[in-house]
Amino acid sequence: MFELIRKVCCCLQKEGHPLPFLFIFLVLSSQVSAKDIEVRVGFSHFPPWQTSEGKNWTGGLDKLILDKLVVELEKKHDIHLRIIPKKCPLKRCLRELQMGALDLKTGLLKQGNREEYLAFIEPPYQSHTNKVIYYNPARMNDIKRISDLYGYRIGVARGATTFPEFDQDTRIQKIPINGTSNGLKLVCVNRLDAFVGTELVMDYILSKKENCTHLRKTSLIYKSQTAGYFAISKLSPLVEILPQLNNTMDQLVKSGEIDQLVETFKRK
Q1: Quick one: pLDDT at residue 69?
Q2: How far apart are CA 143 and CA 159, in angstroms?
């Protein structure tokens, strides 16, 4: 960069240009004012938040939000982030964040000792997740209260927790199933009456199943107050711009842009 500036200034002087030093000042000022930061982002295949093909991060809600964050950060704070995605299972991503081998991870909860080595971008980009029930209208009617589930076979992902009223009610016949996708498939083919799970996950799965368009979402919806965050390693250069990251995320949340993106992933 400086060699290029020197050559340009020499040319300006040979041509008798009176302001070579002003040129130097303007170029250097632009370099100082704009920040360009390489950001190593860990991701997993966790649809609909993060989708991938091989080692490539192809899409998902988190990627769309990160893209918006990058654009707004540059527009409002003159900070450019160069995103370098790296696919890793959650535990490995967390370990690399702790060591400083990764800079950022999306879709994280504040739990355990994570705040010891992570700085969470505030506010959370997702303040809650909806737990819903999909049912086969040929086998049962809409569910408006928990007691409407009595007498039916309700699938739930093995080992999962949904919401207290459902989990703790022993009068509901709960059928453990290996995975949400398998559970919805069983509802489709009339082997279960309904399946309970996370709304966005089930909406995404059903959008890929053309033979399940007859399934319906119940009126009973539970908001799980589990906040999802973008978080950065405390060993990352991003720590220096945490106030700007917080400010930009706050604007995206308050403007409703993130809610609009979430709605595009819901089954209509």
Answers
A1: 98
A2: 23
Identify the CATH number of the domain in which residue 251 sits: 3.40.190.10
CB atoms within 10 A of CB 140: 19
Half-sphere exposure of 257 (CA within 13 A, CB side): 15
| pTM of the shown model | 0.80
Residue 13, domain extent: 1-31
Q: Which amino acid is at 18?
A: P
Span 117-133, pLDDT tens digits = 999 999 999 999 999 99
Give residue 160's Cα distance to chain centre.
Answer: 20
Same domain for 67 and 17: no
Under 8 Å between Cβ of 110 and 227: yes
Structural domains counted in the chain: 3
What is the rounded distance in angstroms from the CA atom of residue 27 to the CA atom of residue 36? Answer: 15
Together in a domain, 85 and 200: no
> Are residue 40 and residue 117 in the same domain, yes or no?
yes
Residue recorded with tokens 């505030």: 122
pLDDT value, residue 14 = 56
Task: State both tokens at 189.
Answer: 């083919």
pLDDT profile of the chain (268 residues), mean per 10: 46 53 45 75 95 95 98 97 97 97 97 96 95 95 95 95 94 97 96 96 92 94 92 98 98 96 87
Fill in the DSSP letter of residue 59. E
Please tell me the number of Cα atoms within 13 Å of 56 on its side-chain side.
3
